[in-house]
Design brief:
The structure holds two protein chains of two kinds. Chain A is of the alpha+beta class. Mean pLDDT of chain A is about 80; it is low at about 15-25. Chain A is globular and about 60 Å long. In chain A, strand 1 and strand 2 (about 40-45) form a beta hairpin. Chain A has a five-stranded mixed β-sheet with strand order 3-4-2-1-5. Chain A has helices at about 15, 20-25, 55-65, 90-95; strands at about 30-35, 40-45, 70-75, 80-85, 110. Chain A has a single domain (about 30-110), classed as Translation Initiation Factor Eif1. In chain B, about 45% of the residues lie in helices and about 10% in strands. In chain B, strand 4 and strand 5 (about 205-210) form a beta hairpin. In chain B, helix 2 (about 40-45) packs across helix 6 (about 105-115). The model of chain B is unreliable at about 10-20, about 20-120 and about 135-140 (pLDDT under 50). The chains are: A alpha+beta, B alpha+beta. The interface between A and B is medium-sized, with 20 and 21 residues. Chain B: InterPro entries: IF2/IF5, Transl_init_fac_IF2/IF5_dom, Transl_init_fac_IF2/IF5_N, Transl_init_fac_IF2/IF5_Zn-bd. Chain B: Pfam families: eIF-5_eIF-2B.
C-alpha cells in the first residue's frame, strides 16, 4: 500500500523535461531539408512510427530514390533517416501511399523547408 | 437558421485568399485592409483558385503573388458545398449576409470555363468537380439563350417557365456587381503582403531585404518571423545594419515566399474567421496565443521548433 500524499512529486520537474513535447514528436513525422555546399542538399526524416523498421525503410529509399542515405540515432529525435538530395516529395508520397507505401495519415506529416 | 448563417460565414471565410502584392498601402497601420480596385479584384481572386502552375504564370499580371496554400482544401469544401441541400442553404444565405458569399463560387466557374484547357494539374485533381461543372454547363447552356439585360428568352416578362437556380444566382451577382460593387467585393477581400526581396550576398548567403516591412504588415515581431524562417529553412543567419536578414545558404525569392506563406497560415490568419488581423502574444504557460481582432477568438499556436539538424561538413567540429 502506498500513501498517495507522500509520494515525491516535483511539480516543476516535468516542465523542464518537456516530456509531453517529445511524445508529440514521436507520432508526428517531420521531413526537413538542409542545404549543403553547392546545390547539394540533405533530406531528414524524423519521427517515424516505431512499428516500422527504419533500416528497411532506408534500404527501400536508397534503392527507390537512387540516392545514398543513412540512419542516425539522435537523442532528441530518435531514429533519423538522412537521404542525399531533395527527396522530400518522394518521401512524402511513400509515407502516405496506401498501396505501395506505409499509408500514414498525411495530417501527421509535416514537410519543412522551401 | 442561425446555424446556417454560421456555416455560411465559415465557408465564406475559408475562401478568402492571402496574396502578395506590389501595392503599397494595402494593409494599413491601423490594421484595416484596403480593398483593391474593382477591376483588379475578380482577377486576383480567380487566380487564387488556379493551380500552382497557372499561379506562377499569373503574377506578372498584377505584380502580386497569390498566397493560397489552402487551395486544395478550399476545393474540397466546395465540392461538398455543391451537393444536395447545402445548395439550398447557399441560396438562402446571401440575402441574409448582404450577399457577400458565393462570389467566389461564381468567379471560379468563370475561370474554369475560360482556362479549363490550361489547367491540367487542376483538372486531374478535381475530376469529379469538373464533371459536375460540365454537367451544369450543359444544363444551363440551352436555356441561357435569353439576355437578362434586355429581358429576352427566360428573362422575358411574359415568360412563365421556371428559371433554374443557377441562372437566378448568376443574375443576382451580375446585378449586385453592377448596382452595388462594394458588396460583391467585400466577400473576396484578400490579404496582401509585398513579395519578399531576396538578394544574393556573396556565394552562399541570401539577404532578405524587406523583412521589416513584411513583419510590420503582419504585425509580428521580426524575431519571431526570423526564428520561423531559420527553423523551416534549416539554416541560421543574422540581421545586418539595415535590419535586413542575412540567411546562410542559397534561397530564391520563391522559396522564401513559400515559407512566409506557411508562416501566415500558421501564425497570422485566424483559424476561425480567416482574418489576418490578429495579435500574437505570450500566454501564461510559455505558450503563444493568437487573438483575433475580428472575431475575438483565441487559440494557441505551436512554438517554433528547430528539430533535428544533421551534421554537415567537417566531422572534426563534432568531436571537438
Amino acid at each position: 500500500m502506498s500513501i498517495e500524499n507522500l509520494k515525491t512529486f516535483d511539480p516543476f520537474a516535468e516542465a523542464d523535461d518537456d516530456t509531453g513535447d517529445i511524445k508529440k514528436v514521436e507520432n508526428h513525422i517531420h521531413i526537413r531539408i538542409q542545404q549543403r555546399n553547392g546545390r547539394k542538399s540533405l533530406t531528414t526524416v524524423t519521427g517515424l512510427p516505431a512499428k516500422f523498421d527504419p533500416g528497411k525503410i532506408l534500404t527501400f529509399f536508397r534503392k527507390e530514390f537512387a540516392c545514398n542515405g543513412n540512419k542516425v540515432n539522435d537523442e532528441k529525435a530518435g531514429e533519423v533517416i538522412q537521404l542525399q538530395g531533395d527527396q522530400r516529395k518522394k518521401v512524402l508520397d511513400f509515407l502516405v501511399d496506401k498501396k505501395a507505401g506505409l499509408g500514414l495519415n498525411p495530417d501527421n506529416i509535416t514537410v519543412h523547408g522551401a | 437558421m442561425e446555424n446556417e448563417v454560421q456555416d455560411q460565414a465559415e465557408r465564406k471565410a475559408s475562401r478568402k485568399s492571402v496574396a502578395f502584392t506590389d501595392e503599397q498601402l494595402v494593409v494599413e497601420t491601423d490594421g484595416s485592409i484596403t480593398i483593391m480596385s474593382a477591376a483588379e479584384e475578380p482577377k486576383e481572386t480567380a487566380q487564387s483558385h488556379t493551380p500552382p502552375a497557372a499561379d506562377e504564370a499569373a503574377p506578372p499580371e498584377d505584380g502580386g503573388l497569390d498566397l493560397s496554400l489552402l487551395k486544395k482544401k478550399k476545393k474540397k469544401k466546395k465540392v461538398e458545398g455543391l451537393d444536395g441541400d447545402a445548395e439550398a442553404e447557399d441560396g438562402a444565405a446571401p440575402a441574409e449576409d448582404g450577399g457577400l458569399d458565393l462570389t467566389m463560387k461564381k468567379k471560379k466557374k468563370k475561370v474554369k470555363k475560360a482556362e479549363g484547357a490550361e489547367e491540367d494539374e487542376f483538372t486531374a485533381k478535381l475530376k469529379q468537380l469538373e464533371v459536375k461543372d460540365t454537367e451544369d454547363a450543359e444544363e444551363t447552356a440551352p436555356q441561357d439563350a435569353g439576355d437578362m439585360e434586355t429581358g429576352t428568352g427566360v428573362w422575358s416578362h411574359s415568360e412563365s417557365k421556371t428559371i433554374p437556380y443557377t441562372l437566378l444566382l448568376s443574375r443576382f451577382f451580375t446585378v449586385l456587381s453592377q448596382k452595388n460593387p462594394d458588396h460583391s467585393l467585400s466577400g473576396t477581400k484578400s490579404y496582401k503582403i509585398p513579395p519578399p526581396q531576396c538578394m544574393r550576398e556573396g556565394n552562399r548567403k541570401t539577404v532578405f531585404a524587406n523583412i521589416a516591412d513584411i513583419c510590420k504588415r503582419m504585425k509580428r515581431t521580426e524575431e519571431h518571423v526570423t526564428a520561423y524562417l531559420f527553423a523551416e529553412l534549416g539554416t541560421n543567419g543574422s540581421v545586418d545594419g539595415n535590419r535586413r536578414l542575412v540567411i546562410k545558404g542559397r534561397f530564391q525569392q520563391k522559396q522564401i515566399e513559400n515559407v512566409v506563406r506557411k508562416y501566415i497560415i500558421e501564425y497570422v490568419t485566424c483559424k476561425t474567421c480567416k482574418s489576418p488581423d490578429t495579435e500574437l502574444n505570450k500566454g501564461e504557460n510559455r505558450l503563444y496565443f493568437i487573438t483575433c481582432n475580428n472575431c475575438g477568438s483565441r487559440r494557441s499556436v505551436t512554438a517554433i521548433k528547430t528539430g533535428f539538424s544533421a551534421q554537415i561538413g567537417k566531422r572534426k567540429k563534432m568531436q571537438g
